[in-house]
Amino acid sequence: MSNTRGSGSPITFERHMAMFDQLPRSVRAAYANAVEDWHIGNPLRSWKSGRYRPSELIASLARSDAAELAKREEQRRTARGPYRGNIPDTAPMMRRKNTRRK
Known about the structure:
The chain has helices at residues 13-22, 25-32, 41-48, 54-78. By secondary structure, it is mainly alpha-helical. The longest helix is centred in the middle third of the chain and has 25 residues, at 54-78.
């Protein structure tokens, strides 16, 4: 499976970061602190074409983040077993030493 649509070129990490660098500083900060790693191709096109101001892009991102957090909270509330965001990190857990008496 490829990450292209039709005859388009693939979105590589380098290309994604080049698009990110073209956004206004305030929008970059909002995307850098977002809940999810959102693709920024559409917001970049919308900003460059003049359809949206940076404040509108930030507001749209905030709505997307709120929806993602609500979805995760619903998954957390109804979860049985591991799900995205609920798998414990076992590295910091200390293992009990064998304390059996001889």
